Amino acid sequence: MIPWDSVTRVCLEAADFPVSDDLYIFTSLRLESWLVPIEADGGQELLSGLIRRGLFDASLAITAARAHEGMFCWPSLDEPGTDTGG
User: Fold this and answer.
1) Each residue of 7-45: pLDDT tens digit?
2) Which of 14, 25, 69, 84 is the most exposed place for a label (fewest CB within 10 A)?
3) How far is CA 5 from the centre of its chain?
4) How far apart are the C-alpha atoms of 83 and 17, rounded to whole Å?
5) 4: which DSSP letter?
């Protein structure tokens, strides 16, 4: 289990049907991200929990859901002081 307060960035990688979209969860616990396919058991609930806790932006999630492909990160990769080490 990943503690909510250890999450430093979340990226949602949109993929075209039939491939699952993926969540990459970066934490202060390790350099590597945790990969969770949205289609995995609990994937949608995890994304909802991240949004509720302000760890992923709701409007960005909608943008990602409409996209055929791309990487959508919160906070954005351009924000200073949010390096994930990878």
Assistant:
1) 999 999 999 888 889 999 999 999 999 999 999 999 999
2) 69
3) 15
4) 31
5) G
What is the spatial distance between Cα 6 and Cα 62, in angstroms, rounded to a whole number? 24
What's residue 74's pLDDT? 97
- Residue identified by tokens 């307060």 is 5
Calculate the alpha carbon distances from 71 to 1, 5, 29 in Å.
Answer: 24, 23, 22
- For residue 20 the two structure tokens come to 């699952």
Taking the alpha carbons at both ends of the chain, their separation in whole angstroms is 21
Give, in order, the Cα–Cα distances in Å from 13 to each of 17, 59, 72: 13, 15, 6
Mean pLDDT of all residues in the chain? Answer: 90
E strand or H helix at 45, and its extent? Answer: helix 43-52
